[in-house]
Amino acid sequence: MSRHRSYSQSRPQRGARQGPNHRQLRVGEMLRHALSEILLKSEIRDKDLEGVPVTVTEVCSSPDMRHATVFVEPLGGGNADAVVAALNRHRGFLRGEMGHRITLKFTPELHFIEDTSFAEGARIDRVLRSERVARDLEPRQGAGKEDDKDGPQT
Fold it and tell me: What's the predicted TM-score (pTM) here?
């Protein structure tokens, strides 16, 4: 029996679901910083983006680095659909601006999506603070108390 695995045995199966690799994570973070800077300093003339601070929470790059999904959330979470639509309308401009700031062979196509993780976190927080959960967490009468009449046992 051979002590070394063959090349095909050491590689993951094709089609097996894997998370992003180190390069995708690094590129996604670089894109996030560049887009944040562009949105902060850029003057996109659109009534839906006027005076609305936008948070870029995460950028997920495709394995070939040609596409990037950008998760955004307007400050306060209000009017998110209009803000995401406006960003998608101006994605060509944003891609061009990003091309000047990053050093990649290709500047990825951008696809903006609303980040719902803040709303989901708030929903979970409301559930955890609800009266029903608090009632379930209260210690029950007589539960967990042992009979100490005989004193400590050795």
Answer: 0.67
Residue 101's CATH number? 3.30.300.20
Distance (Å, whole) CA 92 – CA 135: 53
Edge-first strand order for the sheet with 67-74 is 54-61, 67-74, 109-114
Q: Is residue 5 part of a domain?
A: no
Q: Is residue 9 domain-resident?
A: no
Least Cα distance to 61 among 112, 104, 20 occurs for: 20
Q: How far, in Å, CA of 64 to CA of 20, rounded?
A: 11
Domain count, the chain: 1
CA separation for the pair 56, 54 (Å, rounded): 6
Tell me the mean pLDDT in the region 7-28: 64
